[in-house]
Specification:
11 helices, five-stranded antiparallel sheet
Length: 403
């Protein structure tokens, strides 16, 4: 292990070792015999130049991301830490490791520092919460070949039996924590993750070539590995009303559309497809009437309609508006009600009402078409069971809370 640590440019020094059979933290030295590398935890990551970073960093060697191939040695404890993915086969590192955008680190997420101005502050990568213990694995979407993601299954013991009954790590807002494949497959610092996925047979060998177009759109310079991707109706996502330019990517196999809170909560965005309204757009888009609020939402296709609407599943943080702007700016109907669809003057708000040929129109057509296929598949399965009760359950699953 000592040779491996030096090969990656890490300094020798005191570290902490987490032992799975007890909750104590024992001081030790590099080169401890009998310890798996996953159990070594750096308190105060330091590189060859002596620079130190917080929070603590846990180096991990990912053998596999296939749930079928996991073993107790793949168990990691990321409590109040970030993960550093290293290649156990690497003989040397050309440069000392510095924490930054070029390092294959995995964190709990990206948070923007609030500022007094309307300009977002510097981003801050946040550590995983306490009791984040378990296994990294790849979630494979069997309907959408590009819809997989890296996830973390929480178990309090390195027992693979608990993996099957465990729960995926959640974000602070209650959605599943994940790193979508489309957002890290093109990043050089995560090349090792893609290599493991190829080796495990979890993605096709020609994945990057086949989806080159959408990979380029998803990595538009504004996204990061923790951005949200939506592939279908019914998939939950969170909206932070303090960030009007928050980017939520809705994607098909060919198009990746960037949806923002402005699309979801302001009814005029589709008008800006007309270039004659450029001057209006410049003045109107400066207005944002919300000052607080976090909501969990999902896209839905109303029965017998070829459009997509938004339902609010849960209000995580109360919605607050700026009084003078809320009165002067047209928004969806207020107050926002949990488990209700967003409306404008009593009619469903449609966030993808773009002109034919636009990315918004393409995404809406894709969501409508795939939802229709899912409904037919569910109903066909229910009919094979020859049970009215099963048919009702299938309909509910295909169109949750539909009306």
């Amino acid at each position: 292990m000592q040779r491996f640590i030096h090969a990656h440019g890490l300094r020798q020094g005191r570290i902490n070792v987490w032992h799975p059979s007890s909750r104590r933290t024992l001081p030790t030295r590099f080169g401890t015999q009998g310890m798996s590398f996953q159990q070594v935890r750096f308190r105060g990551f330091s590189d060859a130049s002596g620079n130190s970073e917080e929070p603590p960093v846990v180096p991990i060697c990912l053998r596999t991301l296939s749930p079928r191939s996991l073993s107790p040695e793949d168990y990691v404890d990321l409590s109040d830490s970030t993960a550093l993915v290293l290649d156990p086969t690497a003989s040397a590192s050309p440069h000392p490791i510095h924490m930054g955008h070029s390092v294959p680190s995995i964190t709990y997420g990206l948070r923007m520092h609030p500022t007094a101005s309307s300009i977002p502050g510097a981003p801050q990568y946040t550590p995983f919460p306490v009791n984040t213990r378990g296994f990294f694995y790849y979630y494979k979407d069997h309907e959408i070949p590009f819809g997989g993601s890296l996830r973390f299954r929480v178990t309090q013991k390195p027992n693979l039996g608990l993996f099957l009954h465990g729960q995926d790590l959640l974000t602070e807002y209650g959605t599943v924590w994940e790193m979508p494949l489309l957002l890290f497959a093109n990043l050089e610092r995560y090349a090792l993750l893609k290599t493991i996925l190829h080796r495990d047979g979890l993605i096709e060998p020609d994945f990057s070539a086949r989806y080159a177009n959408i990979l380029g759109q998803a990595n538009d310079g504004y996204s990061d590995p923790y951005s949200q991707l939506v592939y279908r109706c019914g998939q939950a996502f969170y909206v932070d009303l303090t960030r009007p330019h928050q980017r939520i990517y809705v994607t098909t196999g060919q198009v990746c559309y960037c949806m923002t809170p402005r699309d979801v909560f302001l009814p005029y965005n589709e008008l800006f497809d007309d270039p004659r309204l450029a001057a209006v757009k410049a003045s109107v888009t400066q207005r944002w009437p919300f000052k607080a609020g976090v909501l969990i939402c999902r896209l839905e296709r109303p029965i017998r309609e070829s459009t997509v609407v938004v339902r609010v599943l849960r209000i995580v943080e109360p919605v607050r508006t700026i009084e003078n702007l809320a009165e002067a700016t047209e928004t969806v109907d207020l107050p926002i009600i949990t488990r209700e669809r967003l409306k404008v003057e009593g009619e469903y708000h449609r966030p993808f009402n773009g002109k034919p040929g636009t990315a918004a129109a393409a995404v809406q057509n894709y969501l409508v078409r795939t939802q229709h296929k899912r409904l037919k598949r569910f109903l066909s399965k229910a009919q094979n069971l020859n049970s009215p009760r099963s048919a009702g359950a299938a309909l509910t699953a295909a169109i949750p809370l539909g009306n």
